Amino acid sequence: MGDEREDLTYALFGTAMRELAQTIADDGYEPDIILSIARGGLFVAGGLGYALDVKNLHVMNVEFYTGVGETLDMPVMLPPVPNAVDLSRKKVLVADDVADTGKTLKLVHDFCAAHVAEVRSAVVYEKSQSLVKCEYVWKRTDQWINFPWSVLPPVVHRPDQVRDA
């Protein structure tokens, strides 16, 4: 991985959310639920929820990244896992900050696919190696991304927690 990085500021994130939401609206997709992949997807789901006037937001906790370019072997769903009946026959928009390897998005997409009417994905960034090609992408890059919410270290250190990059 090179030293060059993609820098996303909070101001640019606001622009990205409006543009991504407009792309979704222009496509005619009207999700019933936005399912965010925590943690980075929480910000995306909130922004899209307001812009698309969707109040039904759900969260799925998935652990995969342990550091910059360091991952577990496979992504793991953490409790509480959403109840599939809550997603039943709904149009679901899965929201995340980045489709990097695509393994996390694939795990969530596969979880939803058997239960929902339709599932689509929206991300701020998509990388070329992603297993999942998202329907809605604000920008494509192969650089490491400095997100405004994770570029600084935590203000507290919790040694029992696996660290995100």
Q: What class do helices, strands and sheet pairing give?
A: alpha/beta
Highest CATH level, the class: Alpha Beta
What Rg is obtained from the alpha carbons, in whole angstroms?
15 Å
CATH topology: Rossmann fold
**Number of self-contained structural domains:** 1
Overall shape: it is: globular
What is the level-2 CATH architecture name?
Answer: 3-Layer(aba) Sandwich
How many individual helices?
4
Beta-strand fraction estimate: 25-35%
Q: How far is the N terminus from the C terminus?
A: 14 Å
Biggest beta sheet attributes: 6 strands, mixed
Uncertain segments are none
Q: Provide the succession of SSEs.
A: EHEHEEHEHEEE
Q: Please, what is the oligomeric state?
A: single chain
**How many strand segments?**
8
Approximate helicity band: 25-40%
Strand arrangement in the largest pleated sheet:
4-3-2-5-6-7
Question: What would you note in describing this structure?
Answer:
The protein has 165 residues and is of the alpha/beta class. The chain has one domain: 3-Layer(aba) Sandwich (Rossmann fold), CATH 3.40.50.2020. It has 4 helices and 8 strands. The strands form 2 sheets. Strands 4-3-2-5-6-7 form a 6-stranded mixed β-sheet. It has a two-stranded parallel ribbon with strand order 1-8. Helix 1 (10-26) packs across helix 2. The radius of gyration is 15 Å and the shape is globular. One of its GO terms (molecular function) is glycosyltransferase activity. InterPro entries: PRTase-like, PRTase_dom. Keywords: Glycosyltransferase, Transferase.
Attribute tags:
Rossmann fold, two-stranded parallel sheet, 165 residues, six-stranded mixed β-sheet
